[in-house]
Amino acid sequence: xxxxxxxxxxxxxxxxxxxxxxxxxxxxxxxxxxxxxxxxxxxxxxxxxxxxxxxxxxxxxxxxxxxxxxxxxxxxxxxxxxxxxxxxxxxxxxx
Length: 95
Description:
Layout: H1 13-23, E1 36-38, H2 46-49, E2 50-52, H3 64-79, H4 86-94
Antiparallel strand pairs: 1-2
C-alpha cells in the first residue's frame, strides 16, 4: 500500500482490499502489504471484487482470466524483444 485509503482516486484491487479491512475496523498504513485474491476484477463492489487473504473461507471463486492476464503481461516483458505482443500471446494461450 503506497498511501492512505482516503488518498486513492481510482478504485482498483488494492483499494477494494483496503475498503474491506477499513469496514472491519482495520487501518493499513502506507508501506504495509495487503494480501488478497481477485474474485471479480470487473466488480465495483469491494466485497465482490477481492477477498482479503485473512478472510478467505476456502470456497471462493477467483477471476482466472485476470490471473492469466497477469501471467501474459509478465511473459510479454520477456518475449517482446522477439516480436511477441500481448495480443499474440493471448491468442496462443486462450485460443
